[in-house]
Amino acid sequence: MKEGTVKFFNEAKGYGFIQPNDSNGDVFVHQSGLIDNIQENDKVKYTLEMGQKGMNAVNVELLDE
Fold first, then answer.
1. CA–CA gap between residue 48 and residue 62 (Å, rounded)
2. What class has domain 2-62?
3. Which stretches within the chain are classed as H helix?
4. pTM above 0.90, yes or no
5. Is 2 exposed, middle or buried (0-12, 13-18, 19+ CB in 10 A)?
6. d(CA 5, CA 26)
7. What is the DSSP letter of 34?
8. Which residues contact 39 (CB under 8 A, 6 or more apart)?
9. What is the DSSP letter of 63?
10. Which residue of 17, 28, 37, 57 has the fewest C-beta atoms within 10 A of its own C-beta?
11. Which helix (H) or strand (E) holds 37?
């Protein structure tokens, strides 16, 4: 699984972006791909899946701190 930090998440619209630890490009995340509820600056782990417009984060879980 990949790890990153939630850069932006809009709860009302149900989507946001994760900044991966190993890359400069942000990854799209939709609420349908969440296991845990997330908010900005949360540390998360996730897997990548090809979506209609590119790679999406799915199976998104909070990291145990």
1. 15
2. mainly beta
3. none
4. yes
5. middle
6. 10
7. B
8. 6, 9, 11
9. P
10. 37
11. none
Tens digit of pLDDT per residue, the chain (65 long)?
A: 999 999 999 999 999 999 999 988 999 999 999 999 999 999 999 999 999 999 999 999 999 86
* C-alpha neighbours within 13 Å on the C-beta side of residue 60: 29
Contacts of 64 (CB under 8 A, 6+ apart): none
* Token pair listed for 14: 């149900």
The three-class DSSP label of residue 65 is coil
Task: Provide the β-strand partners of residue 16.
Answer: 9, 29
> What does each C-alpha distance from 48 to 1, 8, 12, 23 come to in angstroms?
8, 18, 23, 13
| Chain position carrying tokens 């417009």 | 53
Which two three-digit tokens encode residue 38?
A: 């997330």
Domain positions in the chain = 2-62
